Amino acid sequence: MTAPNIWEVLDRACNTGQIALAKDFDMKIFNVASRLVKEYDIKYDPETPVPSDDSLADDAWNAGLELFREVGAYCINSGRVVKFSESEIGDALNELRGEAVIGEGSERRVVELRSVEDKRPPSIVCGGVIESDFPEGELFVRLYQSIAQEPIIDGFYVGPPLHTSEGRLVRSGTPLEAHLGRSMASWVREAIRRAGRPGMHFVSACTPAIANVAACDPNEGLRRTDGIVSTIMPELKTDYENLNKVVSCLDYGCIEHVYNGGMIGGWAGGPEGALIVSIASAIMAVTVYKIGVGASYNALGYLRVSSPNYSAFVTRPCLWGSAIGSQALSRNTKIINTAIAMTNAGPGTEMQFQEVVAALCAAIPCGREGLSQGVRRFKVKPLLGSGLENRFWGEVGYAMAGVKRDFANSLAKEMLTKYENKITRESEGGPLGHTFDEIYDLNTLTPRKQFLEVYGKVKKELEDLGLEFKYYQTAR
Amino acid sequence: MADAQEETLKKLADAVLSFDSAAAADAARAAIALNVDPVKAIEEGLAKGLREIGDRFERGELYLPHLILGAEAVEAAVKILEGHMRKDQLEATSRGTVVIGTVEGDMHDLGLRIVASMLRANGFKVYDLGYNTKSLDFIEKAKEVDADIIAASSLMTTTMPFMKDLIEALEAAGLRARFKVLVGGGPVTREWARSIGADGYGRDATEAVKVAKELIARGRNE
């Protein structure tokens, strides 16, 4: 048997799936997720942000699988529910290759499955700056050159689209954005050429499909060894823009990077519901977005929707969900699953580094294959992002290889103690941080002394806590 | 009799707290039968339940579906109570009318649903246009329902400019003074709101409700 192919999936999404009101679909998720949380007795434990309980991970996996089987996925444009039988889901999971090949030439990387507490380092360290408030052209090239020149970084995420194209304000879905998608890809190619790494992998994260498709060009733009980001919207929802990206990736033959996750406080309820809906989302990435075809991979994240809404990805309940979700997928599937961290604090601050450490405690010791979508400040201000925090992202990712979950739990708690109380309304969620031109000397493209000192101080504190930095012993 | 009335007020609050629209409607009918002042039934019964839900949402103990179900229970009861209220009572209990949506090109709706539910929970009449709402559709609906506030959200930097369009379209139609404009969403900042000439900004649902109340109060004093 084989799983339904993309054409059958699209037929269900566009033509034949049962029509339902979005509200009814949302409430069904809430009802089913609430029931499954009770049935599997899954309970959020704030004292253990990184649990070591294998049976909890397996229960979460089974609950997520049941949730997806019962609820399916929802296409916003058609109002149709895309459902799969138990055997179709099983076939789709069995078709996963458990391997992805990215980049080309000397920058080719093979992303392999990792197990929980695996001693091997993450297979891919994909950095980037999730930031749109950079000017077009040279400064944007310098930003990505500052990331590409870090040997520890294997690739990066590029997006969302900048604010302007050819000096004109960009609105989503307009032709200026399509042109911008192409421009951004060509600037990134220039950045990796200047860094002496022309084969380096990147993923394009423009919102409309057309802006990513416009970037596809083996010579000057997005190659088949690069990727396009498609998103599963909360919860278990897709739309024609994202399905257009999926089809374009398959038709062009490039890598698909699916971004999805659970929303704590949203349609699935609290941390427990968000955990199982995130696992259902990963199954949706396999069945609907077809990440089992070719060399595609999945990025699983946890957001918290509540007040104050600053706490993207790195709060205590988000870490708990991420840690169990990572273990659940690692123990039960061949999904290539990468980590995301959107921080509250901005670049060049101790707090941002601490948030990165906490995020990675819940990822690499828990069996994630790699890192993708580097750090960002949740509320944007201009020029927030640099190569320096990408270096830290990679170094800590490597340091986490072979770390036991118990130690990751104590380290995550230590980090949370340092920054949790700074995520407040009064502080706007934490320090804004420093801009690219403050952190780097733009002539030599090197980080300035004061920021290297912050970097060194945090690293020393981590070493004192028992974390061993080993990238330079294990570098390829 | 007073005990029976107190008991009914408690039943109204409990029905909201248990997210039970049918029980809320039954309690509203019982309140009318016992000659409970409908305004009192709303303020000391239904609103009490909703405030509790709002507080528990803030503390992370309840979630978006609870906000929606609680607001639905209130609406079911208010529909019955309104039929027994004088015109001056109807005006006094109405916080105002809000037309809300996510701007054009933006398919995010989760934050929008939270703000809409919190506004309902605080006594606003809310018309939720959902995601991907064109500026002219906001305006048409606001005219149709004689809204006080148009609330627009954006979750992407590339859809934020459509908020500016909304204000320009209101100006072009000569309607800028008629409707207050409240904006919010992930990348939206207070500075952005000020720069496009919005009347208010809410960085989260709690602040959005607070600002909406201020805008209504300001409108009544103008």
H and E string of chain B: HHHHHEHEHEHEHEH
- Ends distance of chain A: 40 Å
Strand order within the widest sheet of chain A? 6-7-10-11-13-14-15-16
Shape of chain A: globular
CATH fold annotation of the largest domain in chain B = Rossmann fold
Detailed description of the structure:
The complex is a heterodimer of chains A (476) and B (222). Chain A has 476 residues and is α/β, with parallel strands linked by helices. In chain A, strand 10, helix 7 and strand 11 form a beta-alpha-beta unit. Chain A is globular, with a radius of gyration of 21 Å. Chain A has a single domain, classed as Monomethylamine methyltransferase MtmB (TIM Barrel), CATH 3.20.20.460. Chain B has two domains: 91 residues, Methyltransferase, Methionine Synthase (B12-binding Domains), Chain A, domain 1 (Orthogonal Bundle); 127 residues, Cobalamin-binding domain (Rossmann fold). Chain B contains ten helices and five strands. In chain B, helix 6 links the parallel strand 1 and strand 2. Chain B is globular. The interface between A and B is medium-sized, with 37 and 27 residues.
Give a summary of the structure in a few sentences.
Chain A is α/β, with parallel strands linked by helices and 476 residues long. Chain A is built from 16 helices and 18 strands. Helices cover 61% and strands 10% of the residues of chain B.
List the helices and strands and how they pair.
The complex is a heterodimer of chains A (476) and B (222).
Chain A: H1 6-16, E1 18-19, H2 22-39, H3 54-71, E2 73-75, E3 80-82, H4 86-94, E4 99-102, E5 109-112, E6 124-130, H5 138-148, E7 155-159, E8 164-165, E9 168-169, H6 175-194, E10 201-204, H7 209-213, E11 227-231, E12 237-238, H8 240-252, E13 255-264, H9 271-287, E14 297-304, H10 316-332, E15 337-339, H11 350-361, E16 370-371, H12 387-399, H13 405-419, H14 436-439, E17 440-441, E18 446-447, H15 449-464, H16 471-474
Parallel strand pairs in A: 2-12, 6-7, 6-16, 7-10, 10-11, 11-13, 13-14, 14-15, 15-16
Antiparallel strand pairs in A: 1-3, 2-3, 4-5, 8-9, 17-18
Chain B: H1 2-17, H2 21-33, H3 38-58, H4 64-82, H5 87-93, E1 97-102, H6 110-121, E2 125-128, H7 135-145, E3 149-153, H8 161-172, E4 180-184, H9 190-196, E5 200-202, H10 205-221
Parallel strand pairs in B: 1-2, 1-3, 3-4, 4-5
Helix pairs in contact in B: 1-2, 1-3, 1-4, 2-4, 3-4, 4-6, 6-10, 7-8
